[in-house]
Design brief:
The complex is a heterodimer of chains A (360) and B (244). Chain A contains 11 helices and 10 strands. Chain A is α/β, with parallel strands linked by helices and 360 residues long. In chain A, β6 and β7 form a beta hairpin. In chain B, β1, α1 and β2 form a beta-alpha-beta unit. Chain B has 244 residues and is of the alpha/beta class. Classes of the chains: A alpha/beta (360), B alpha/beta (244).
Chain lengths: 360, 244
């Protein structure tokens, strides 16, 4: 047989053997970790709403996921998500865009301050940069400021102490305060506030923006951490856009958004040994699944699909429970059982989903 | 005459002792107080059957009441029922795990006040007789209580947050909290009986914990003394909205 560049490649390099004939729930070599996450690694998580699944599953598998703003012990557990607790490592709600993450980090470092970030609705006041965490708002603008100031103080501790940061890239589209460039996670007027075309504008970030913003994030993190390195795992959310303001068909806009995010993640990952990429997007959108990954609205991810994604993750980053050789195995629940016990009926707090209500 | 039942566990003791002082000083005109306490195990031994509070048979001998010998209490015989059992709504165990602490919203506090650490029988009383119920809860732990000493070593930021949250808890408890269309009243210890951050009781109101009859027994950090009971009842009857 004539020699050619494809002859010695593994099965995973070919569509037929890697996808068409491959079990979508157990794909070989789709993810190879760049670095180890041990039981002593302190993990911080953030990102768009799919990242909540990652946070919950890491916790359930024994990883040390930081929570700098835990729920008060007396708050009933079913209300934790409603008030933005336990979703991520801080009570920042969903962070959909890299610019949003950058501005948060810059604000934590004191290098930047948002403008027009207190929104009003029916006499209640909302932190526009995390509007979903207090569904009834707060009593005054000053209370919003006070809560935010403390939030930032605590995030400073969080980002200084984490060893690994897992961030899920969600969207390229956002709404911006024109004067200051402050990027909001939701459009003004959806949860609170009101849309003013003179003050607010739409932005659809491009590849170069993402690279620039993410590298800036790393620079700010380095300052916050006084140069101490941090490992980063990037994922792209497989949850499609609920709506687009780009003027394109939402399917086209979604493809643009996810493509740019995915390309940026690749560029960042390829250029750094400290940044890994976990292909949750690919596992969910695998054509073998023929949309079976999605719920009836073809947007939310089915529980079993989330489980599939996380099983691939834990095939490389073995559950901490499996790493604990010194423990009496009879005393612990098996990881597989634990995985089954995790409630995948996870009540995702997703402000973006509110757009649906406005679209109806 | 307003008929008031003080109902609970050993926490009823200091209220009974305080009532004795108020009566001696003739500061309790217009109120007729009754007490029912099941010391030593909380009020899980009570159950509500219609409007009758009953005690589990095996606990009957422990029940202390001051006005009649049978072991059934008809809630409808009273205009108000003060619940002196369970964790005080200001108790730090509801709001803080470990520092650094965060500000809490009125909405989050409202959920905690409403749902956290409520005995079943108390929940039934809330649901069935909300207009009669005044929830007092137990005494906040002494400022000298070993398990809560870490409060003294907190930094200024955390102490200020506790103070700020305590003010909000007071505001929430002062507002009416509804169960459907019904409303329950909460009463918190007045600030002067509490230590500086407002979540522990001053030592002078704790020293020499009392048994139900108001006589001191071995000192403990979890029960008030007669001065505490006096201050609580005095503040309660000064709060006209509780009895109107």
């Amino acid at each position: 047989m004539a020699k050619h560049p494809y002859i010695d490649l593994p099965k995973s390099s070919f569509w037929k053997s890697g996808v068409a004939n491959e079990d979508p729930c157990c794909m070989q070599e789709i993810y190879k970790k760049k670095f180890q996450i041990t039981d002593s690694c302190r993990i911080a998580t953030a990102g768009s709403c799919f990242a909540q699944h990652i946070t919950a599953n890491l916790k359930a598998n024994g990883y040390q996921v930081l929570d700098i703003e835990p729920p008060p012990p007396g708050l009933p557990e079913p209300l934790h998500k409603k008030y933005g607790y336990s979703m991520y490592s801080g009570r920042y709600g969903n962070i959909y865009t890299v610019r949003q993450l950058l501005q948060l980090l810059q604000e934590v470092s004191g290098a930047w301050a948002p403008e027009d970030y207190i929104w009003e609705r029916n006499g209640r006041y909302f932190d526009a940069l995390r509007p979903g965490i207090e569904p009834n708002g707060l009593s005054s603008p000053n209370e919003v400021k006070e809560h935010r100031q403390r939030h930032l103080q605590l995030l400073s501790c969080l980002f200084a102490s984490a060893d690994v940061f897992i961030f899920t890239l969600g969207l390229t589209e956002a709404w911006v305060h024109k004067g200051s460039g402050t990027v909001y996670p939701t459009a003004p007027g959806t949860i609170a506030g009101s849309f003013n075309p003179k003050m607010h504008s739409f932005i659809n970030f491009q590849f170069a923006d993402l690279i620039h913003d993410f590298n800036s994030c790393r620079a700010v993190l380095s300052v916050l951490r006084e140069g101490k390195p941090i490992k980063i795992i990037l994922t792209v959310s497989p949850v499609p856009l609920t709506a687009t303001a780009s003027g394109c068909h939402v399917l086209v806009a979604n493809t643009y958004s996810k493509s740019v995010l995915r390309a940026a993640a690749a560029q960042l990952t390829n250029n750094s040994k400290d940044i890994d990429y976990f292909p949750s997007y690919e596992i969910v959108t695998n054509p073998r699944q023929q949309s079976a990954s999605y719920q009836e609205n073809f947007r939310s991810i089915r529980e079993e699909s989330v489980k599939n994604v996380m099983n691939h993750f834990f095939s490389e980053h073995v559950s901490i429970f499996k790493q604990e050789d010194s423990l009496d195995e009879s005393l612990i629940t098996k990881p597989e059982e634990l995985s089954d016990q995790v409630s995948f009926e996870y009540d995702l707090q997703c402000e973006e989903a509110l757009l649906e209500a406005f679209a109806e | 005459m307003i008929k008031v039942l003080v109902f609970g566990n050993s926490q009823v003791g200091c209220i009974k002792a305080g009532q004795n002082i108020l009566q001696e000083r003739q500061e309790l005109a217009g109120y007729d107080f009754y007490f029912a306490a099941l010391p030593g195990g909380g009020i899980g031994g009570f159950k509500l059957d219609g409007n009758i509070l009953k005690v589990n048979k095996e606990l009957e001998e422990k029940l202390k009441v001051v006005w009649k010998s049978d072991r059934q209490i008809d809630v409808n015989d009273f205009d108000r029922v003060i619940i002196a059992a369970g964790d005080n709504r200001l108790h730090p165990c509801f709001y803080y795990s470990k520092p650094p602490f965060s500000h809490l919203s009125h909405s989050v506090i409202g959920k905690i006040v409403t749902y956290a650490g409520i005995d079943r029988v108390v929940g039934q009383l809330f649901m069935n007789f909300p207009e009669k119920i005044i929830f007092l809860g137990g005494v906040l732990p002494s400022e000298e209580c070993v398990s809560i000493q870490s409060i003294k070593t907190l930094g200024n930021d955390d102490r200020e947050i506790i103070k700020s949250n305590s003010l909000k808890i007071r505001a929430v408890c002062d507002s009416t909290i509804g169960y459907g269309k019904k409303v329950v009243k909460y009463f918190l210890p007045p600030p002067h009986v509490l230590s500086d951050v407002g979540v522990t009781t001053r030592k002078k109101f704790i020293r020499g914990g009392l048994s139900f009859d108001g006589i001191g027994k071995s000192p403990d950090n979890l029960h008030g003394n007669k001065s505490y009971g006096y201050e609580i009842l005095k503040a309660m009857i000064s709060t006209k909205s509780l009895f109107s």
